[in-house]
Write a structure and sequence with these properties.
ten-stranded antiparallel beta sheet, mainly beta, disordered N terminus, six-stranded antiparallel beta sheet, single chain, 1 helix, 257 residues
Length: 257
């Protein structure tokens, strides 16, 4: 399986970052409109998970303005299955016991590797202070996940796959990653292609999915939301692309919340 190679020394990049402010490299963030189920045909927001440890994600493409970027952060969002109106609201650790960010070059095998990065989880709402409304109408907690990607260097102009897997405190391995319809989100949707992706528990690529296609599970297409920030670095990143065998895309249960 392909892996991303971290630098053995970060001194050069730390010095460079001290004089360069991190910029948003990919902006496919949380929609600024609360278009949940109550919005009817105009609803944009959705959350996707898979079963039995299979996990969902997407891809992003870094700008080609620099040969490489030191990635200062990757931000994703999750929807948990708690009752948002319950008092007191549960903390993240009461709902999710583990969480893993996966990364890998897009192309060749499309496999991803677990990164081992730490994260910070913060309960958030959409603009207007509204939270996520599940497919059954119940209000759920929406969490912003900020991944600490210290030491990660990625090539400019290249496309990368990412996914988020985890374990809920109820023992389920289904983690629901927030997605949205690019046309209705009201924000930039860098790299949106109306597809999201899924991987087997070991990071082997499984499928690319259009949720708006017949049998897709929703009435419109969607992309997993992500924001990537970083600073350009003077030398190209060293990335082990690897050549894994192409995995056969298997149709599995994709669950919407």
């Amino acid at each position: 399986m392909q892996k991303l190679v971290r630098l053995s020394s970060l001194a050069l990049f730390a010095a460079f970052a001290s004089v360069s402010s991190a910029v948003v490299l990919v902006d496919r963030g949380l929609p600024n409109q609360s278009l949940n189920n109550a919005a009817g045909a105009n609803r944009s927001n959705v959350a996707w998970g898979d079963s039995d440890g299979w996990f969902t994600g997407d891809d992003f493409t870094l700008p080609g303005a620099a040969p490489a970027y030191s990635i200062t952060g990757i931000r994703t969002w999750l929807v948990t299955l708690d009752d948002y109106n319950a008092s007191p609201q549960k903390g993240f650790s009461e709902l999710v016991s583990s969480l893993t960010l996966w990364l890998g070059p897009s192309g060749a095998s499309n496999d991803v590797a677990a990164t081992g990065y730490s994260f910070t989880a913060t309960r958030v709402t959409y603009d207007g202070s509204t939270t996520y409304q599940g497919s059954g109408g119940a209000l759920r907690s929406l969490w912003q996940i900020d991944w600490n990607t210290t030491g990660l260097v990625l090539a400019g102009g290249a496309k990368y796959n990412f996914g988020v897997s985890g374990l809920r405190t109820d023992g389920s391995t289904t983690i629901f990653n927030h997605a949205s319809n690019a046309a209705l989100g009201g924000v930039p949707a860098d790299g949106a292609d109306n597809l999201f992706k899924g991987w087997k528990p070991d990071g082997t690529f499984d499928y690319s999915w259009d949720s708006g296609a017949p049998g897709g599970g929703w009435d419109k297409s969607s992309d997993i939301n992500v924001v990537v920030t970083g600073v350009p670095v003077p030398e190209p990143a060293t990335i082990a692309l690897g050549l894994g065998g192409l995995a056969t895309a298997a149709l599995r249960r994709r669950n919407r919340r």
